[in-house]
Amino acid sequence: MEWQQYLYYSFRHLVPLTSPKSHPHLKLKVKRDDIFGRSVREQLAKMFSLPKSTLQKPLRVIFEGERGIDEGALSVEFFRLVFDELLDPEKSVLFRHINEDDPTQSQVWFREECPTKDTAKMCGLLFGLSLFNNALVPLPAFPQLLYAKLLGKGPKEEMEEIRELDKDFADQMSKRLHETEEEVSGSCRGDELQVENGDRVEVTKANVHLYVKKKVRDYLAPSQFAAFQQGFNKVCDIGVLGTFSPVEFEALVNGEKYFDWVAFEKVGCMAVWQPLWNNHSVATLITEETTMQNRMS
Asked: How far from 251 is each of 107, 225, 236, CA to CA, in Å?
């Protein structure tokens, strides 16, 4: 069993699924040919009025017109289909390719110009539900920065965030700050900057720092990420996930072909993991896997 599952067992040990006898499941009815259509969006919108304890019930997905009881496979199929649509910039207004010159190899980030925050909020909710129910589908389109920011462990400065997302753009913006008046005039020709009184003025050496700040802010689309985070936090307890590093969180979602079990055992013995390591079968499973890999090597 790969280490993605061990990480999930650790997460689930800290936050078990709730399943009261009266209403044991959270249900979501979907149409395969309209996977993020009006009906699904309306159901998701209603979920925002529900308490976290209700959203943390086991999810049961029902495909309209199809037989089958969701024991996990239907949920995985739904999340695969809905994220294929939501994370495709050709189909969704929420995300854009970071590297537009090579979109087939590019990860995605939020569009500031997305007309509503609701889609980002629903996408975050879906991401949280998939994680909480172990209905995980690989999402390589998300950069590691997203996981770091969800954990509250991202860079403290916006320029540092940009550098993680798009080094070329970050270098370009940094260069603008050190250009001469003539160079700024040439590189920002035709661009204007809106100042505090609402007027639009030409970009100059004196105000280029404000121009760069706005370009960086627009690139990061903080309001869209905040909406996504709000939806995600509606399901998941960031205090619990805070025990993971961004790398571990990303691997929890995407999996990893190779894992250094010895290194993880050392991490597991840190104070934050000590109760889990001492009292849960995950530690025994990992130790057994470590021993088996050592014997095979």
From this structure: 16, 21, 17
